[in-house]
Every structure is written in structure tokens, then in C-alpha cells.
Amino acid sequence: MRKKYELLAPAGDFACFVAAVNAGADAVYFGLKEFNMRDTARNFSLSDLDEMKKYKAKKYLTMNTVIYDNEIPRIEKIIKKIRGKVDAIICWDFSVINLCRKYKIPFHISTQASIANVESAKFYKKLGAERVILARELNLKQIKKISKIIDVECFIHGALCVAESGRCFTSQFLHGRSANRGKCQHPCRHEYKIIDEEGNELKVQNRFILSAKDLCTLPFFDKLKKAGIKAFKIEGRNRDADYVDAVVKVYKEAIDKKLTEKRKKELMKKLECVYNRKFSSGFYLKLPTSDDFTNIKGSNAKEIKKVIGRVTNYLSDKKIAIIKIFTDSIKIGDEFFIIGNKTGIVKLKVESMERYKKKVKTAKSGELVAVLCADRVRENDSVYKIIRK
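RESULT FIELD:
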């Protein structure tokens, strides 16, 4: 199964990148600090690519924004520098495609191109594209037809945009920040009133009239595996390492195994613990309805994390993490995430604690405490307390 399919994970920073690889992703997609559709993520620098080469997962660089004439020389310099350091570039602007062809760098066509038919797939294949990332507005039957032409990649989990293939102008009109340049302010996630010119207000049950639920394909994932899809893509370059870790692990299992209904329910609970706006099947099974719009602001996650401190030292021989607590307090039985650029994410349940070589049951803000931690963590890693709603 692992050779037949590719599981592709998002990374908005190095902690997410490491978390994705450790969780079992076959490939990771990410952006530099310019020319990518998640400009608001922390993103990466060119110097990070050398460190990323140490990890076995494939690396796909996104350069998928609208491009202007004055930016092409800068893009060409970047493409020259990344040759041999990434496995492909995700793009759709012909200026970037032409530069990929010029420097013989593999490229995948972004979902921004709204590829929704066989003829478009043939066109990009003739240009030299190795893969196309299909428009999100397709059903399984349409996908299967296109997959016979070229390798296809489809989103399986994460945020859905109310606009076609994410090409929205609302943020530009309201805030002067273009979604097509990676700077979306997500005005669709707000509550709205509908008022006519005379001031009459239309009463609606749900004021989140533009905010789509998140895509979740786990309940019908076996159907996706039969649709000819080569790469399964998780959305979320603005999400944190705990989200990447949980979602990658769930879909890795779904790819490798035929899940029972009982196991699907267990895995759905794991997905519900991390960031989500409730779930929808998108366009895969049917056209979305009003039920596919969320009725909440922010996340519906069953768990939240609260930063409470940082790691000051890790004693490898004793498997002990020394934690400085900044806020709140911790006690035996509490659960934590420890997140860092080289650590990725480590989940830890406090079984015992010590202060000055004496066992304690609680530790307060301002205190140093030693906690057993089998997985290696590092100095300055952030420590988050897991709080269940």
C-alpha cells in the first residue's frame, strides 16, 4: 500500500515538518517566506532546505501564488538555489512552470489551476507536469476519469474555502490583502447579517453563511483508494504540530489497512480532538448543502493546548526532562505536548515528578520540575498542557 499511495502532509514551520515525518508522511509540502498561498504561516528560509535534506520524506515546495513581472527574476534565483534540494515545485503560473522546465525541476500543478476535466489534464501533461492537484469541486467518478491521464493528488482533510479552488477576492476587497497572494484574512469565517437597501433584515438560523465545514474523508476513505488517486493531501499549513501529528497518523492507518466501522469511529474521535470546524464530505459523494456550513466560530476541537513553560534541559541517560513552568500548574496525571523544531512533537503523561530530588505531586508557576520523558526533547522546546473541553 505504501508504494501505491503517497500521504502528503502540510508544514508551516520546522516543528510541523518533523512531526509530519515522524508520524509517517511520505511527503511534506511547505512554502518559503514568499510566493506561497500560506504567506501567514511561519514558513521556511532557503537555508532550512539543507537541514530538511536529512529527512527521508519527499519535499514539495509551493510557489503557487499569482506572479507579477517584477518578481520573475527573484523567482528564477530561488529556483536555481533549490535545484537538488526539493523533489518538486507546486505551481500553476506559467512563469514558474517555464522556469521549472528551464532548470529541469519536476513540477506539480496546484489546485489553484482548477483542473476539472480530462483536456486540462492532457494539456498540463504535455507541458511536462508529473502530477496535477485537482480542483476540490470534483466527485469520485470525475476524479477516476482524470486519473487515467496523469497522476492526481486530492485533498482528503482540512479547511475548505467557500470560493472555487480557493480563488477568492473577498479579503482583497475588504482588507486589501489578496488571498491569491497568500495573505487571506478569512472574512468568510465571520458571522454575517443579510440586510436589504431599506434596512430589512433576513432572519437566518446560521449567521456563518460563508464558512464551510472542514473536509473529512475518513468515513469513506476506501472509496478514495479505488478512485485512482496517487497522492492523498492533508490541508493545514497554518495548523500546529499536534494537528499534523494526529491527522497524519489517522490517515496513514487508513491507507495501510482496511478499517472496520468500529476503528473508524475510534479514529474520528482522534480527529475531533484537533482543530476542526466540524466535518463535511466536500464534493466527493454529493454536492454540498446548507448542512456543510459550520455554525461555530473558531475551532470545534475536543482538546485545546495551553502553553505553560519550556524545557531547560534533557538528561538522556535518565530519560528526564527539566521543565520551567511559566503559567498555571501541573500535577500527576496531567498530559502534555512538548513541541520543538528538531523534536517535532512528543506527547507525555506525567507519571511522576521531582523537585530537588524529592517526589512531588504538583508544581507551580515559577518552579523547575523534573519529569520522566522516554522520548528525547530539547532545550527551549515549548511545553503545552492538554485541556479537554
